[in-house]
């Protein structure tokens, strides 16, 4: 696994998602993951790959957790 992917996955799992519903958590997790992946990928020379891996990992982390495990608050769109 590339260093970009490992860093993105770790960062996304630490800040999985926000919101009370599964849909909110998946959406916000994907957005957070994409941002983290873009930043990590840009530093290491692969921003597109970092964004894709980050978005997927964040969405999965958001779907796999509930608000009692991690909660970053109310999503901006609510």
Tell me about this structure.
The chain starts with a helix and ends in a 14-residue tail after the last helix. The protein is elongated, with a radius of gyration of 12 Å. The model has no long low-confidence stretch (mean pLDDT 76). The protein is an all-alpha fold. The longest helix has 23 residues.
Concise account of the structure shown:
With 78 residues, this protein is mainly alpha-helical. The protein has three helices and no strands.
Distance between the termini: 36 Å
Low-confidence segments, given as residue ranges, are: none
Along the chain, the helix and strand elements come as HHH
Care to count the β-strands?
0
The percent of residues in helical segments reads 55-70%
Structural class: mainly alpha
Radius of gyration: 12 Å
Amount of beta strand: under 5%
The outline comes out as elongated
Secondary structure tally, helices = 3
Mean pLDDT across all amino acids: 76
Question: What labels would you give this structure?
Answer:
single chain; 78 residues; mainly alpha; elongated
Describe the secondary structure blueprint for this structure.
Blueprint lengths: L2 H12 L7 H23 L2 H18 L14
Helix pairs in contact: 1-2, 1-3, 2-3
């Amino acid at each position: 696994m590339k260093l970009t992917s490992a860093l993105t996955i770790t960062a996304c799992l630490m800040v999985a998602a926000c919101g009370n519903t599964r849909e909110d958590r998946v959406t916000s997790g994907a957005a957070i993951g994409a941002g983290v992946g873009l930043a990590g990928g840009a530093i290491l020379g692969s921003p597109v790959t970092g964004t894709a891996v980050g978005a997927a990992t964040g969405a999965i982390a958001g779907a796999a957790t509930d608000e009692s495990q991690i909660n970053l608050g109310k999503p901006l769109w609510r």
